[in-house]
Hints:
This is Transposase. The protein is an alpha+beta fold.
Amino acid sequence: MTNQLFEAALGIKAPWFVQSVNFDEASRQLTIGVDFVAGSRFAHADAPGEHPVHDTQIKRLRHLNFFQHEYYLEVRLPRVRLANGKVRQVEPEWVGRLDGFTLLFEALVLAMCQQMLLRIAWPGLPFHRA
């Protein structure tokens, strides 16, 4: 039940699934293990069609906080072998463009930067709380 809850909250869909949920109260960290179904084939932008998994790599991605706790995804990402023999990393749409972050975490950082830049450029800007 817990795994399904996190799959729904993260928007993870097949062939991806939440494999594990680990909460470390002492370090105030929540780590979600994400995997894919064995035998899955994946598309890649460099070549049409779906390709077999060559091997995998684990990536640890910083996600938005879970209440006051740091939240990480440890994702087993496939590398696929293309028809031309090249091996390429597959990344789901929720992996960010910067190494080590989810897309939502990157969006939060960019939104905060926009607010900070506005305050630097216009120090007299009145502060409004919604």
